[in-house]
Write a structure and sequence with these properties.
Blueprint lengths: L11 E10 L2 E11 L4 E5 L6 H9 L6 E6 L2 E2 L10 E4 L11 H11 L4 H14 L15 H13 L5 E5 L7 H18 L2 E6 L2 H7 L2 E6 L2 E6 L1 H6 L4 H6 L4 E7 L4 E4 L2 E4 L10 E6 L5 E3 L9 E12 L3 E8 L4 E7 L11 E6 L4 E5 L18
Parallel strand pairs: 3-8, 3-9, 6-7, 7-8
Antiparallel strand pairs: 1-2, 1-4, 4-5, 9-10, 11-12, 11-14, 12-13, 14-20, 15-19, 16-17, 16-19, 17-18
Helix pairs in contact: 2-3, 2-4, 3-4
């Protein structure tokens, strides 16, 4: 098992990859590449097609149409055991009657590897996941996080060039999940194997990934690095799903100007045809709250009233109801928390460089809502 950190993973190529169940299309003509040694995450809500795509790569689900290649070799007609792929599931799938070492050794025995070589590889795999001292225990004697590490060791012990992971941390509590995210990232760096990781957890995707493919309704909505997707979402869906966004709906004017219910907003990117329904998208931490009216130099200024505040320790989030009835979040870091409280009248300001204009999705309101009552200050 390689642990030199040099990429030795395989490339994965998908061209118009499609899966249908009768009249229902679960994955719709997906084009996607995983680079050798890359950590690629498939992110999306339930039913978006990400797990079906992973299962087609693994060979657990047949391909309806399209091409699927691993290192430029067609594999759609190969059974799973001939694809040189390791798999880690959410629910571990460990043999309860076997010890930790025997669980990890199992795929090597299936490959008829000599006993001495098996022992060496099992020891190395357990050391890599930090469980070298627990080889003699059974799964029921381990915590959930330890069991997931055993599953990871078993998947990588025979040196597959691709490692697939389907919601592997979904059954763990947040603190343990956060810890294992860093452990998985470390192991990926040590192995150099190509990882394809499925999750619906946006924070997990941002922490782990080299690139993220955001799935929606069986298609890839956007593909990019974590910073590209967060800083430059290509659609309202991506802006809302990957991280939190404040959305100001209106109508496109000239250039990068938007008429948002009589307010003139300017963004640095995303010009659209005049008259089209759009949303100005800003990340909540890029918005400033000003209780005494906007600064004279403020380019974008929107009035509203604070509905509630939510304290997170390292930050707090304020929900602000705009005059058109829309509610948007604003986030302040612990070192920059203002004295503003629920019920206060405020102005939201942000720089054009922090904003983008995106088409309003079909399910998003293009017209302002009726104002809703808010608490008086």
């Amino acid at each position: 098992m390689s642990t030199d950190g040099n990429p030795h993973g395989a490339s994965i190529t998908m061209r118009r990859l499609t899966k249908r169940y009768g009249s229902f299309t679960a994955v719709d003509a997906v084009d996607l590449d995983a680079l050798p040694g890359e950590f690629l995450t498939l992110l999306g809500p339930s039913g978006s097609g990400k797990t079906t795509t992973l299962n087609m790569i693994a060979g657990f689900v047949d391909v309806t149409e399209g091409q699927l290649l691993i290192d430029q070799r067609p594999v759609a007609d190969l059974p799973p055991h001939r694809r040189d792929i390791g798999m880690v599931f959410q629910h571990y799938a460990l043999f309860p009657h076997m010890t930790v070492a025997q669980n990890v050794e199992y795929p090597l025995r299936q490959r008829s590897m000599p006993k001495a070589e098996r022992r060496a590889k099992v020891a190395q795999a357990l050391e890599t996941v930090g469980l070298g001292h627990l080889g003699g225990r059974t799964p029921k004697q381990l915590s959930g996080g330890q069991q997931q590490r055993v599953a990871l060791a078993r998947a990588m012990v025979y040196d597959p060039r691709v490692l697939l992971m389907d919601e592997p941390l979904g059954a763990l509590d947040k603190k343990l999940r956060d810890s294992l995210q860093l452990e998985i990232k470390r192991i990926h760096g040590a192995l150099g194997t190509t990882f394809v990781y499925v999750t619906h957890d946006q924070d997990e995707a941002l922490v782990l990934s080299d690139r993220i493919a955001v799935f929606n309704n069986g298609r890839i909505e956007q593909l990019g690095t974590p910073s590209e997707l967060y800083e430059r979402p290509g659609s309202v869906f991506v802006a809302k799903f990957l991280g939190e966004s404040s959305l100001f709906y209106g109508t496109a004017e000239d250039g990068t100007e938007v008429d948002a219910g009589g307010l003139r907003l300017i963004a640095s990117r995303g010009a659209h045809p005049r008259g089209s329904a759009v949303a100005v998208v800003v990340r909540p931490e890029r918005i400033f709250l000003e209780p005494d009216g906007p600064r004279p130099e403020a380019t974008n200024a929107i009035p509203g009233r604070v509905l509630q505040e939510i304290y997170f320790g390292s930050s707090r989030k304020l929900e602000v109801r705009l005059d058109d009835g829309t509610t948007v979040p604003v986030r302040e870091s612990a070192g920059a928390i203002t004295p503003i409280r629920a019920g206060d009248r405020v102005w939201l300001t942000f720089e054009p460089e922090c904003a983008a204009i995106l088409p309003a999705d079909d399910g998003d309101p293009a017209e302002p809502k009726e104002p809703a009552p808010v608490a008086a200050s």
